[in-house]
Amino acid sequence: MRAQMLKWGNSLAVRIPKHVAKEAKLREGDSLELEIAADGSLQLHRVARVPSLSQLVSQITPENRYEEISTAYEVGRESVEW
After folding, report:
1. What is the CATH number of the domain that holds 25?
2. Domain assignment present for 17
3. pLDDT tens per residue, range 17-62
4. pTM for this model (two decimals)
5. What domain count does the chain have?
């Protein structure tokens, strides 16, 4: 498939057709990494999404949760009784 390079402000842009974006599972706002090969060809790579804190917390299970550990002696008002 061919595409045309367009001017966008001081930059250049390539419009990705809807059916290509759909097949590549690209959405508006996705982060992409550009890589230029030695021969001058350009490759696009999707950057993995950074999970939100709530997504990370939802993955905590009793099986992957560590017990509390003591790393040093308690100093001052650090001592807490549970």
Report:
1. 2.10.260.10
2. yes
3. 999 999 999 999 888 999 999 999 999 888 887 888 999 999 999 9
4. 0.51
5. 1
